Amino acid sequence: MKLAFVSDIHGNAIASLAVLKDIKQRNVDKIYVLGDLCYRGPEPQRSLDLVRSMDVDVIKGNADEWVVRGIKEGEVPEGVRSMMNNERDWTVSKLTDDNINYLKNLPTELNLAFDNVDIHAFHATPTSLFDVVPSDASDEILTEEIMVSDADIFIYGHIHKPYVRFIDGKCIINTGSVGLPFDGSNKASYTIVEIEENNIGASIIRVSYDVNKVIKQFKESDYPNKELMINILNNASV
Q: 14-29: per-residue pLDDT in tens?
């Protein structure tokens, strides 16, 4: 069984198409999307339509929740909340009511079982859409914040920095970000998990796409914070 886990598209339809093409070439059996579909990118509607057009299981991320109801006090530094809500309002203006309701009703976790291997997938942590567990977190923190069930594999997104680690025989994976990587490489990131009987393999896949085309989309748009987003795309960091 070959599974693809995709997260943090962030309205970058061009990156999404490149990732989907790569997934198709690898003969993947099933795709799972771990949230943050359309906020903070130049093509929110197209990105969401791409996801909804496929036979995939999707869960909600913090950015999807923000699209539905805005960014509340305490969820981001107060100095940037107003601008981020402006970005949220721009995103909402590009979406249909049906798509906003779709985001509202997404589940927040997946519990999967394949060949006696259990997978627990979520956006940030099993109990929060917003908490941050970084790639360099200690084994103790990962055990407390991520490994809260009896699963064999734990997969999440949110931090935009991919990794694979093993703790006490369990596998912890971060998918990285399709549309907005923060790890210094502006190649789109996703994860392949392969399961055969009780054996597992996990790989981080990096996919090249036309970043300059996405930057051009921002430049030609009326997106309210486009200089910051262009800088993040160029540098793959915040």
A: 999 999 999 999 999 9
Residue 121 burial by CB count (10 A; 0-12/13-18/19+): exposed, middle or buried?
buried
What is the distance in angstroms between the CA of the first residue and the CA of the last residue of the chain? 36
- This prediction's pTM: 0.97
* 108: confidence class by pLDDT, cuts 50, 70, 90: very high
pLDDT at 201: 95
Torsion of CA 61, 62, 63, 65, to 10 degrees: 90
Domains held by the chain: number: 1
Judged by DSSP in three states, 21 sits in helix
- Structural domain that includes position 166: 2-235
CATH of the domain at 37: 3.60.21.10
- Which of 128, 111, 129 lies closest to 120 in space, CA to CA? 111
